[in-house]
Amino acid sequence: MIAIIDYGAGNIKSLQSALSKLNMDSCLTTNEHVITNSKAIILPGVGAFKDAMDALNEFSLTEVLQKEASLGKPILGICLGMQLLYDKSFEDGEWEGLAILNGTVKRIDSTVKVPHMGWNTLAHQSPNNLLTNINEQEFVYFVHSYYVDECNEQELVCSCDYGVQIPAIVQKNNIFGMQFHPEKSGKNGLQLLKNFGEMVL
Q1: Which residues is 164 bridged to in the sheet?
Q2: Within a 13 Å sphere around the CA of 78, how many CA atoms are in the beta-carbon half?
Q3: In angstroms, rounded to a whole number, what is the distance separating the alpha carbons of residues 16 and 88?
Q4: Which of 19, 43, 46, 107 is deepest in the core (most CB within 10 A)?
């Protein structure tokens, strides 16, 4: 079973619906016992970084997620959820993240329209089982104004170009991130979620 963290900062019904189409068992939860007994965790997220971290702290989930990550539990961060995995964000201030991955989050340069909203292509940066049946330059759906600026190149699976190189998929051992919304990305998004499930379940 996949635990989807239900902390009030994500469009989680569509994500759960996508997983159901793939026959991947999931539940929406903030319960520590459910999370620790799950096979994998998905951390979704939309909105502001600070608000999301405040909500995780309010539900006493920050240490739970950090502990599960350290124990090797697969964790997938989606959109803002991916950004929360990193050390800190400079969104309207400077805020500490979960620090499960090393890097910082900053605003997309104003030389392009912000937010980055709509379909963009994935450029493969390293071989990865997440990319099974995903061709080079396939389209996925993005909605974000901030991105991971300092990303370890060895953890970069896919990027997209939007004024700068934006990390689109990352992986470090049991930790995964997708800056886009796979649940809104049609067949490609479903394939990526399917690949994630086959890697971790």
Answers
A1: 162
A2: 28
A3: 28
A4: 43
Distance between CA atoms of residues 95 and 119, nearest Å: 29
pLDDT more than 70, % of the chain: 100
Strands (E), the chain: 2-5, 26-29, 40-43, 75-78, 88-89, 95-96, 104-107, 116-121, 123-124, 139-144, 146-148, 156-162, 164-172, 175-178
146: three-class secondary structure by DSSP = strand
Contacts of 110 (CB under 8 A, 6+ apart): none
Does pTM surpass 0.70? Answer: yes
Active site residues: 79, 181, 183
* pLDDT for residue 150: 85
- Tens digits of per-residue pLDDT, 22-50? 999 999 999 999 999 999 999 999 999 99
Give the span between the Cα atoms of 147 and 150, in whole angstroms. 9
Per the structure block, which two tokens stand in for 118? 């709509």
CB 93 within 8 A of CB 52: no
In the block, tokens 């700068």 appear at: 164
Neighbours of 97 (CB within 10 A): 21
